[in-house]
Amino acid sequence: MKSHPSPRITTDIPGLEKILHGGFVPGRSYLVSGGPGTGKTTLGLHFLSAKPEGERALLVSLGEADRNIRNDAASIGMALEGVVTIDLSPTAQTRGQSTYTLLEPWEAEPPDIRSRIEEAFPEGPPARVFIDALSQFRHLVPDTFQFRKQVMALLEYLTHAGSTLLFTSERGSQADEDLQYLGDGILQLDRTESGRSLSVVKFRGSGFAEGRHTVRLSGQGMSVFERLVPGEHGQPFVAESIPSGVAELDTLSGGGIGRGTVTIISGPTGVGKTSLGVQFMREAASRGERSVIFSFEESLATIRHRCEHVGIPLAEMMRDDSLAVESVEPLRYTPDEFAWRVRREVEERGATMVMIDSLSGYRQSVRGEDVVTHAHALCRYLANMGVTVLLINEVGSIAGGEMRVSELGISYLADAVLILRYIELDGEMRKTIGMLKKRTGDFEKTLREFDITADGLKVGKPLTGLRGILRGDPEMGSGRASRGSADNGE
């Protein structure tokens, strides 16, 4: 008869169970290591408060007084009813004493944790035990040998009885180094200028998601955002061309952009990059597809005003849920948190087109980390899911200078590149559009005049007779340049 694995021990921390492939393995012991303020105690409180109704649980506190821990738990909405506390904190040890004695640590009698547990639970240890912080016990024993011996005996006693044990330690201490070898798993919490993170160093008896994952502490406790690994995600889709709905633009681009590909729309400020991206989304909405704009720089009101001024019914598309506009504060979200927002739109709400506006705003959310690494992971994930990606990139120069796709070194990610650019002809500043690259098919190797009117986007006939456009210094060739009217597309 085939045996079934025991159900995992969960914490109800959003995102953590996915990283642990279901949760903690029952009857095992786990070290939670980290410096001050990294969330060690908060993780343990989640572990205790997530116990099923009627299940026993125990908190052994060696650092903080019981009343303080319960107050902290209540402040983030956690109920510890039914959780027994053994308070071995310094406050509890000196409570009732009128004087203090300065002794060497080993001259004081160390607490017998096992006896205290047996006293509180004569029928055997509870299913969940959290010891915070076990590294403090090192100060109460004379040497490393005694510390390891007593901790190993305690862990064996609890896990042999079927308890699942979490214990914390202060990272960098001698006790933390000793405890690294004694548990079945290690969860490492860190805090840097770029934010908090969690890494699983070892996890016996189970797989886990490797790497550093973002941790967020809030008024609701802890949340963990899994590092995005694009190769672990994907779904079948039909590789087809997606038109823009503007005939001349579709001719220029060889039928449109490819489904499940990445397109960079690059150009200087005010040239119409966002409007061009929304035009593709407008056409997607007519096919019954859903699109999402993640705007790092402009508010919804600004985008709506701009689109409706050029005949794109943004409000109507949003009412029909064929389009969502998400304003993103770049300094608030880490790349993992932003990737989670994108994944939710794709996996839960069925988005088939995503626009990131702009790459410079996205770069701020990376906070000094490698923007290429995070952009690569996100774009490859979206492509694997069959989502069409539009990346809005702003270049610094309005006109003149050599044409650049991106200043961030991510142009290799693009399957297609649409270039919008200002040029000066006959004493006038004009907008042009061209396709610089397309991996999935042929395209027109010319520039066309581009205009944004109250009736929508207009693309003229190919501009001929010009040279020096790519270096930003267009001039007449052997004959005068000919162009079609961008007002009527002729």
Q: Number of DSSP strands?
A: 22
Percent of sequence in beta strands: 25-35%
Can you tell me the overall shape?
A: elongated
Largest sheet, in brief, is: 9 strands, mixed
Write out the strand line-up for the largest beta sheet, numbering strands in chain order.
3-2-4-5-1-6-7-8-9
Number of helices: 14
Could you tell me the mean pLDDT? 87
State the separation between the terminal residues, measured CA to CA: 76 Å
Percent helix, as a range, is: 25-40%
Low-confidence stretches: 96-106
The helix/strand class is alpha/beta
Q: Would you write up a description of this structure?
A:
By secondary structure, this protein is α/β, with parallel strands linked by helices. 27% of the residues lie in helices and 27% in strands. It is built from 14 helices and 22 strands. The strands form four sheets. A nine-stranded mixed sheet has the order 3-2-4-5-1-6-7-8-9, with helices on both faces. The chain has a nine-stranded mixed sheet with strand order 14-13-15-16-12-17-18-19-20, with helices on both faces. The longest helix has 17 residues, at 144-160. Mean pLDDT is 87; it is low at 96-106.
